[in-house]
Amino acid sequence: HQETLTLLWSFIVSMYCVGGMLGCLCSGYLTAKYGKKKCLLFNDVVLIVAVLHTGFSKRAKSFEMILIGRFLEGIGAGRIPHYSIAHIQYAGEISPKKLRGFVNVTSSVFLALGKAVARILGLRELLGGQSLWPMLMASCGLPALVQLVTLPFFPESPPYLLIRKGDLEGYRKAIRQLWGEGRHQAEIDDIMKEKATMKNTKILSVLELLKDPAFRWQLYMIVILTATVQLCGINAV
Q: Domain Major facilitator superfamily (MFS) profile: where (predicted)?
């Protein structure tokens, strides 16, 4: 029945957001405990499992597989705050100081490029037709697979190794692997300053943050901007 189809389609569309909300609940804890590199690798596995469900759903004649795939994709996107944020942080932390700003900007460029490519591939003349849509839904697994294969050859973020783990030897090894054997005292000084700052900084709970008058106007600004983005019509488009 048409009403049943509409309900199922609404569930499929909404399941991504449900998974995203659940993923966000554990994103901060997992990133702090296991580091950005391990979390990105785990996210790649989740996304590959998700696209296997969506990609083979038509062959299996199972809309439940689309629901599961969309839910897992949402968890993957939400666990590392919208996924791209961890990439930006990791890329910035492993970059030399003189290239850090450039690397952070390129992340936004590739994010916009990815959205544009996805829109183009979604045209009915390409992968958005009746026969090829499973390939379109599974296409996001390709970048995840490439990252899953290549990222293990990169070290963990030096700030994470030194600040969170206190692993001085691992920190030095990562520095040498990333930046060579030269002098990198400026980058090292920045990380040491960050470590000293974190020691003297109290981690606030959500309730304490809401009650602290020093952050009130910043919170107002963030809430207004976030709500405006959600209400501007981009999700409808």
A: 1-237
